[in-house]
Amino acid sequence: MDDRTYTADAEPGETVTVAGWVHEIRDLGGIAFLILRDTTGKIQVKFEKDEMDDDLVERGLAVHRESVISVTGAVEAEERAPTGVEITPDSLEVVAEADPELPLDPTGKVDADLSTRLDNRTLDLRKPEVKAIFEVRSEVLRAVREQFRALDCTEFNTPKIVATGTEGGTELFPITYFGREAFMNQSPQLFKQLVVGSGVERFFEIGPVFRAEEHNTPRHLNEATMIDFEAAFFDHTEAMDACEAVLTAAYEGVAENCAEQLETLDLVDEFEVPESPFPRLTYEEAIERINATGALDEQLVWGDDLPTEGEHALGEAVGEHYFITDWPSDIKPFYIKDYDDDPDVSTGFDMMHPTMELVSGGQREHRYDHLVEGFEQQGLDPEQFEYYTEMFTYGMPPHAGWGLGVERLIMTMLGLDNIREAVLFPRDRQRLSP
Ligand code: AMO
Fold it and tell me: pLDDT tens across 246-299, in order?
């Protein structure tokens, strides 16, 4: 049982047992200090060499940095100690000795490159500014779940081993499934649509998606975490409202509950909850504005994908989160519904941070005949998707939804340079372990 006292709770006048990692040892001659770190902070342990048991002093000062120790002793107020208190030890136990040669320095005094950090995440996570990222991530997921509950959604988990892809054939990871070809799922797309046709009506999921992305960039992962939303009887504008509410809730949760983490990350002055409503630009307006910035060598025309430099130029001009709506039907997937009065334009939308895309979504094609036609137009075999399309013949309401990448959300929220910083053990083209 964990009956130790957290360092943050150690009060003068008490005798406590604290346990944690040896952060630092400072030997000043007659007196030496050991700084012990646990999940709540740090505490100074004082060794007065002439006044204490020699064996205790020797063991305390010989222990290697980052070893796990347990110390029992009286807590006293001490102005000069980093936290205003210190412990004079009666006993000290080395619980787990650390190798004196550490691959990275958790005190942060020596910089390590990202690759070394990711190889040694256990040590890396001992740094407060790294731990803070994951505490923020945890709060984001909590706040998002709460917001989904307020939107009357039910949380689901859909299969990650699947028979077909949905987001374009080139980005699938094939696996062998009892002698048959199968794939790691790219998105809960088809499953979430099947759920809203069931009568549950409002779906959300937070889970992994697998993308065999060719690019090795600071904003692409091969395994990402997606927040998926889908709602029956919603159109794309209502789905955008829900998207805005969820993103805002994530920021509000962090603003309310992560003051300490924002301080650690030096973001107190910069952190702002985005203001609603977010501007909604049509695709046509977006390409006009990008063309007007002169950021691209060639002018964009209707039907072009937005290149990264174009997205950046537009993001800079808009300066806040925004939506791009009314995309050309041809560059949106088969499940996105086109406008009834203009089949060249789709109800698909993206939600953008000024620096990158965070969300894709739209109203879905719920009419069986149109859906099957869409498959054919995209060169997909409707027969392979029969498990999906068949359900559209048993009463499928109109519906809409979206998917939001968790790591991109954290990356943009905290201004991280690389998406890998927001993942515990990232999967990219080079990295398969740890
Ligand atoms: P899409 O493929 O645009 O849409 O993905 C939605 C969001 O997920 C994140 N994302 C990624 N993040 C990191 N690395 C990747 N390789 C990666 N791929 C995607 C992004 C992106 O905006 N089914 C639709 C959603 C829907 O319509 O409901 C979909 O998957 O933030």
Answer: 999 999 999 999 999 999 999 999 999 999 999 999 999 999 999 999 999 999
333 CB less than 6 Å from ligand 1? Answer: no
Task: Select from 212, 215, 160 the least CA-distant residue to 189.
Answer: 160
Tell me, using a 6 A CB cutoff, whether residue 423 lines ligand 1.
no
Return all residues near 132 (Cβ < 8 A) that are at least 6 apart. Answer: 258, 260, 261, 262, 264, 265
Residue 97's pLDDT is 98
Q: How far is CA 32 from the centre of its chain?
A: 42
Q: Could you read off the pLDDT of 349-359 as tens digits, one per residue?
A: 999 999 999 99
The mean-pLDDT minimum among 85-94, 112-121, 368-377, 417-426 falls in 368-377
Q: In this structure, is residue 181 part of a structural domain?
A: yes
**Same domain as 74, residue 151:** no
Cα(159) to ligand 1 centroid in Å equals 17
Q: Is residue 405 in contact with ligand 1, taking CB distance under 6 Å?
A: yes
Would you call 157 exposed, middle or buried from its count of C-beta atoms within 10 A (0-12, 13-18, 19+)?
exposed
* Structure tokens belonging to residue 409: 């959300």
- Cβ within 8 Å of residue 208, ≥6 positions away: 160, 223, 224, 225, 226
**Structural domain boundaries enclosing 56:** 7-96
Distance CA 167, CA 183 (A): 12
Confidence (pLDDT) at 76:
97
- Let me know if residue 307 belongs to a domain: no
Based on the fold, state whether residues 254 and 160 are members of the same structural domain.
yes
Distances (CA, A) of 303 to 300, 331, 345: 9, 7, 10
Mean pLDDT over the full length of the chain = 95
Q: Which CATH number does the domain housing residue 381 bear?
A: 3.30.930.10
- pLDDT tens per residue across span 360-405: 999 999 999 999 998 888 888 888 899 999 999 999 999 999 999 9
Please give the C-alpha separations between residue 294 and each of 289, 297, 313, 354, 377, in angstroms, as whole numbers. 9, 7, 9, 17, 34
What pLDDT shows up at residue 168? 65
57 close to 90: Cβ distance less than 8 angstroms: no
Distance between CA atoms of residues 404 and 247, nearest Å: 9
To test the pocket of ligand 1, the residue of 191, 209, 388 to mutate (highest count of ligand atoms within 8 Å of its CB) is: 209
Packed helices 128-150 and 406-414: angle between N→C axes, nearest 10 degrees:
120
- Same-domain pairing of 91 and 128: no
Please count the structural domains in the chain: 2
Residue with the nearest Cα to atom 20 of ligand 1?
Answer: 405
